[in-house]
Amino acid sequence: MLMEPLFAGLYALMDPQLLVLLFAATLGGVIIGALPGLNATTGAALLLPFTITMDPIPAIAILTTIYCAATFAGAITAILINTPGTSASATTCLDGFPMAQRGEAGRALGMATVSSTIGGIISIVCLMMAAPLLARMAYNFAPPEYFALTVFGISMLATIGDGTPMKNIIAGSLGILLATVGKDLLTTVERFTFGFNELSEGIGFVPVMIGVFGISELLVQAERLQAERKLIQMKAIKLPSREDYRKVWKTILRSSGIGTFIGILPAEGATVASMIGYNEARRWSKTPEEFGKGAIEGIAGSEAANNSATGGAMVPTLALGIPGSPTAAVILAGLMVHGLQPGPTMFTEQAEFAYAIFWAMLLVNVMFIFVGLFGAKIFARVTFVPVQILWPIVFTFSIVGAYALDQSMLDVYIALVSGVIGYFMRRFGYSVVPLAIGLILGGMLEKRLGQSLIMLDDQWWLMFTRPLSLLFFLLTILALFGPYFWRLFTQRDPLRSTGE
Amino acid sequence: MTRYTVPCGTIAFCLLAYWLSTQFDRVPPILLRGMQPEDFPQMVLLIIAALSVLVIIFEKPVENEPVGVNVWTSLGLFAVFALLSQIDLFLGLGIFAGALAWAWGERRFWGLGLVAIVSPAMIFLLFDMVFRIRFPRGFLTNLWYG
């Protein structure tokens, strides 16, 4: 019974045309990850409009492929030019670049490729097992439980992005407010539409995402036109030796576990995973003093963690409809655009689809080996595409993509305005990631609150008498105030305060 | 810009949006199930305003370099694009892309041609012929649509 959709999903993927498309998406994802300023989230947001005319399986498989491939590709530029292609690879620079400087670029890239692949595969296997279980658990959730879960998902926004927790929650709330534009689902009353009929259906996810991730990045790049990058020469990529494997296998396994777990947490993504994976690798290492000077364990710890977070992030995305990372939020938007409803029913009513996505992700992780081993040298050169050529083309893609979904010029202007707002938000320390996730979850949050109130006969406090919703509310409090309590607790520690 | 400008601007925005929300149609109590349409947005606005007050009190100001000339130029070109797109979307895109590349220092003829002519044309053909997207009629698109 369980095996049937598993193999049906694999069979759905065995279309030669689709396999070629996935290989092309892997190459595309690696190029996106290597291009200056582009990352998995921006790449997925820009390519989302390309998938609208496709069937759901190839469409979402392409987006997840871009996610995995771009996350991996960040390591190439991190090692060869000391510029992380994606923020998730920032910790890879710490040891990758020093190794490249002392002539071991090939060994460093080989380790990054192998640990990314192993981390990715471990997390996909976890995803295949955990997502249906989580979905089965959530199958009996009533609206109050769903509401509490969505509140918990939103509370996790506090810790993501570049902003402080308070600013992140403001940005997330702004996203939720944007989701209220249009007809109210319960009363059909129009809100904040200012007489524009096109706004009755609400503000689309796609133009806002293209704006805040793509167009705002163009303005950020405008500030960095003078940045210089220097490529380290590399003869050939080298697979890790037996000695290397002996040194790092524990690190890879540990980081894969950490990455998968962090990925499963709502809204936390590969960047947090790589930081924790790297720190844990250093903490458990027999030679922690080598970290930062070219330790191969550092590369393994960072890369296994960031790539395993991609699989982990898809667990809450598919099983609960709560994005596990910023890129997963774009994929969630893609699912909704294709009329699919992520959540527990996905594993009963669309199980073949869900498993096809899992297999696609597994396949991509295998493709890395070939792309990483044979193409790293070429992809590193992609980073040197002049920004004054790249970003005008990205802008053209962004605008046409924003228009294409609903064929509306209003969406073009929404993307443009979102881009400008996104740039100034980033400038003043407000991350745009919570805004995008808030926009996606906002509609869901209001609908579930409304349904809960109807179910509980307007006695909202009864939500706190239901064990599961109470648990999610407590977790929300912990997510929001835990760091403050922790700081308070540690500051009062006399040993710490005296610095001993 | 002082540390108070952004949170105060946010609070002013919340006040305006709150006032706008009071203008929504209301559902008669006898037909109402759940919340009035303005309840949820008002709750969100109150949260944003309250957090903005906390930002004023607790957050350290963000030290920023002044917005650079390239950013202002790009923003100006956005406005030009928005105006030109009224005439023709692809005319606006071509002029914007070429002007942006020029403003960012591109002087090679092939580079400018690539971003201003080749890439918008290729993207148009891709979306028109492969994805069957119909673009708004305009000065240039009429040449294709007839």
What features would you describe in this structure?
The complex is a heterodimer of chains A (500) and B (146). In chain A, 61% of the residues are buried. With 500 residues, chain A is mainly alpha-helical. In chain A, helix 4 (56-81) packs antiparallel against helix 12 (296-320) and helix 6 packs parallel to helix 12 (296-320). In chain A, 72% of the residues lie in helices and 1% in strands. Chain A has 20 helices and two strands. Chain A has one domain (3-229, 241-489). Residues 494-500 of chain A have low confidence and may be disordered. Chain A has helices at residues 3-13, 16-34, 40-47, 56-81, 90-101, 105-138, 143-155, 165-179, 205-222, 242-264, 270-284, 296-320, 326-337, 346-349, 351-382, 387-406, 409-427, 433-455, 467-491, 494-497, and strands at residues 182-183, 190-191. In chain A, a hairpin with a 6-residue loop joins strand 1 and strand 2. Chain B is mainly alpha-helical and 146 residues long. In chain B, helix 1 (5-21) runs antiparallel to helix 2 (39-58), helix 3 (69-87) packs antiparallel against helix 4 and helix 4 packs antiparallel against helix 5. Chain B has two domains: 5-58; 69-145, no CATH class. Chain B contains six helices and no strands. Classes of the chains: A mainly alpha (500), B mainly alpha (146). Chains A and B meet through helix 8, strand 2, helix 9, helix 16 and helix 17 of A and helix 1, helix 2, helix 3, helix 4 and helix 5 of B.
Give the oligomeric state of the chains in this entry, treating copies of one chain as homo and distinct chains as hetero.
heterodimer
* N- to C-terminal distance of chain B: 52 Å
Q: What is the element string of chain A, with H for helices and E for strands?
A: HHHHHHHHEEHHHHHHHHHHHH
Can you count the beta strands of chain B? 0
Total discrete domains of chain B: 2
Helical content band of chain A: over 70%
Task: Decide which structural class fits the backbone of chain B.
Answer: mainly alpha
